[in-house]
Design a protein that fits this description.
The protein has a six-stranded mixed sheet with strand order 2-1-3-4-5-6. Helix 2 (49-75) packs antiparallel against helix 3 (77-84) and helix 2 (49-75) packs antiparallel against helix 4. Strand 3 (105-112) and strand 4 (115-125) form a beta hairpin. It has six helices and six strands; from the N terminus they run E-E-H-H-H-H-E-E-E-H-E-H. The longest helix has 27 residues, at 49-75. The radius of gyration is 17 Å and the shape is globular. By secondary structure, it is α/β, with parallel strands linked by helices.
C-alpha cells in the first residue's frame, strides 16, 4: 500500500515504518508526504484532475448506500429531499475543496497496485489545537485490509505535527456506520451519545 499526501511534487521524508496489526498480510508503506510549509511554498496544483475525479467517485460509491438505503427510507421523502436531496452534487463540491493547506485542510490517498484504495481528509484549527476528520472512504474491494487504520493513523500524526491535541470524528449511529464506529473505537476514540431528530413540517 502506498500512502501519499496530495501535494506535488511528492516529497519523501523519514517516517517510521507502520507496523500492521496482527493478521494483517498486506505490506504497508508510508511513502510520500509534505509538510504544511512545503505545501504552501510550491506553485503546483494540489489536486490534479485524476485525483479529484476518482476521489469524488469513491465518495459517492461509499456513501450512496447510506443516503439511499438507510437515511431516505428512515426519514421519508420530504425530509430526505430537504436535507440531502442533492447529496451527489454536494459531494462533488465538497471533495473539490477538501485539500487546501492554506486553510489547514489536507487529504492523504492510499493506493494499492496503482489503484486508489481509499482516502482521508482532515482539518486542523491551530489556534484551538483541535483537528477533525472530515471524510474517510475506502473502496469496497479494499475494505478489511487495514487501509482505514493506516489512513487514520497517518492523519493523526500529521495533526500532531501541526500542534493539534484532540481530534474529533463524526459518524452515524445506524447500521451502515457500524464498521466506522468499530474502527474509531479501536483507534482509541471515545464515542459521545448524541441524538438527532427530524420531522417534516
Amino acid at each position: 500500500m502506498l500512502l501519499r499526501r496530495l501535494a506535488y511534487p511528492p516529497l519523501r521524508v523519514g517516517l517510521p515504518p507502520f507496523r500492521p496489526p496482527a493478521g494483517h498480510l498486506m505490506p504497508v508503506l508510508l511513502a510520500f508526504r509534505s509538510s504544511a510549509r512545503e505545501a504552501h511554498s510550491h506553485a503546483y496544483p494540489l489536486v490534479v484532475p485524476r485525483d479529484l475525479a476518482r476521489l469524488t467517485e469513491l465518495t459517492i460509491e461509499t456513501f450512496g448506500p447510506f443516503y439511499e438505503d438507510s437515511f431516505r427510507p428512515l426519514v421519508g421523502e420530504a425530509v430526505f429531499a430537504n436535507q440531502h436531496g442533492t447529496w451527489r452534487d454536494d459531494y462533488v463540491k465538497q471533495v473539490a475543496g477538501l485539500h487546501d493547506p492554506a486553510e489547514h485542510r489536507y487529504v492523504a490517498v492510499a493506493e494499492i497496485d496503482g489503484a486508489v484504495a481509499g482516502y482521508v481528509a482532515w482539518a486542523v484549527e491551530p489556534e484551538r489545537r483541535n483537528a477533525s476528520v472530515t471524510i474517510l472512504a475506502v473502496s469496497a474491494q479494499h475494505r478489511r485490509l487495514g487501509a482505514g487504520t493506516v489512513l487514520c493513523e497517518h492523519a493523526f500524526a500529521a495533526m500532531r505535527e501541526l500542534g493539534a491535541e484532540v481530534v474529533m470524528i463524526g459518524t452515524g449511529g445506524d447500521g451502515f456506520h457500524a464498521p466506522a464506529r468499530a474502527l474509531y473505537e479501536a483507534l482509541g476514540c471515545t464515542p459521545l451519545p448524541i441524538a438527532v431528530y427530524y420531522r417534516a413540517l
